[in-house]
Hints:
By secondary structure, this protein is an all-beta fold. It has two domains: 3-248, Jelly Rolls (Sandwich), CATH 2.60.120.200; 261-469, SPRY domain (Jelly Rolls, Sandwich), CATH 2.60.120.920. It has helices at 3-6, 463-469, and strands spanning 21-25, 30-34, 42-51, 59-66, 72-79, 83-88, 92-96, 107-114, 124-128, 131-132, 136-139, 156-159, 173-183, 193-195, 202-204, 217-219, 238-240, 247-248, 265-266, 269-271, 276-278, 284-292, 297-306, 311-316, 334-338, 345-350, 353-360, 367-373, 378-383, 386-387, 402-403, 411-417, 425-429. The strands form five sheets. Strands 1, 3, 8, 9, 10, 13, 16 and 18 form an eight-stranded antiparallel sheet that branches. An eight-stranded antiparallel sheet has the order 11-7-6-5-4-12-2-17, with no helix packed on it. Strands 20, 21, 23, 28, 29, 30, 31 and 33 form an eight-stranded antiparallel sheet that branches.
Amino acid sequence: MTAQTILPANSVTGGFDVDNSVRLDGTSAYLKFTSSAGNRRTWTYSTWVKRSKLTNDKQNFISSYAAQNDAGYTGFRFQEGEVINLTGWSTDWFTTTRVFRDLSAWYHIVLAVDTTNATAGNRLRLYVNGVEETSFSQSNNPDENEDLAINVDGEVTYIASEAYTSGGSRWFNGYIAETVLIDGLQLTPSSFGEFDSDSGIWKPKDVSGLTRGTNGFYLDFKDSSNLGNDAFGDTDLTEVNLAATDQSTDTCTNNFCTLNPLTKRAGGTLTEGNLQYTASTSDSSIFGTMAIPPGMKVYFEVKLVSNTAQNAIGIHNVYDPGGTFVKGGSVSGMYSFKPRGASSVTQYFNNGSATNHSIDNVANDTIIGVAVDNANGQIHYSIAGTYINSSDPTDNNPVALVTGFGGASEQYLHFSLDTTSTQPSNQFNFGSPPYSESGGESDADGHGNFNQAVPSGYFALCTKNLAEYG
């Protein structure tokens, strides 16, 4: 599998930059506000989303239940089968034929409503990444001048949650950015984005000049202390079960590596936007979403939340081989370090061959720095800021802990956990940490927030760096 196959290719360098998104856990986090009397017939909802989990249930973008006003229900969401659905109180307005299973890329989704349009087929329009969806497994047009349950006076509108149960279920699981409600206008995607003239990739553009209408809002998630802040300056939303650490720099203009649930084998669970990996009922392994190109040098960090069993951090030269569990370091083509090895000491692996190290098992909450040099075939590991063997990542240093994988081919981040009665757990920081990080260290291009200084020549694994150095 090539890097282009697994690399989310929907972020570009240059132009309008989106700084932040919000990371939603899919279990209880959402935003809400109480509407004033707005336009229930004409409105537009635009959002950028990066999914973290496929589902056999529904994951809402926006919804409102207005029973007390006899206004019914409107829910716009991913639903079973990984399709996009818009539903009403007793009618599914549409369900796409196309499925949306990519857990590594950002989607731009626009729902544009105008039930006053005399042409029935133009009353509900759905666009994904700038292109209108025209193939539906079911499609029912609202009556002319029909009111939907958005912008109902005195009713609560929910973002990333099911409204029917008062925000109690069917939450969105993943990242959302640049989320906009326009009350009173049916807009096209060109109000929110444009195709890049060089790459042809759909990208966001500045929306601050749009006319919001009565209930309109713009969530840019730039204020970590007020993630529901309306950047239009009017309709602030209430955050529910969101904290400052849920702000992320993983966005639709700079997509960061995460762990790929589609490659998770055997046990293990993923949380925190696929940045926390915890053992469950059996040993498990997983790959990252982005490949390291030949010649590129990449830096990331791993926080050992619970280092209670064998815990491998490294690379594999084959992506998800055979779709089966692979124990870290156990086969040829694998290079890794275990901050808790098979005995009372740490271990490292070169091409599947294990060597014990004199360093004791590493304590919980320690930050492991990982500098992957895919030019010289070396991985330098640091423990709480000190590189093992006193190696120097910037100097083709022969005392790097892990060596020998060349550098002329792609390498793939690979991690595994053994299970015990106390399940091991790691948090991964590829530049946008899922935990509070005050280190403030970034790479030379200003990307990432790391605990330790990023070695010269090494970069966070994100699409802007891949575009420049990959």
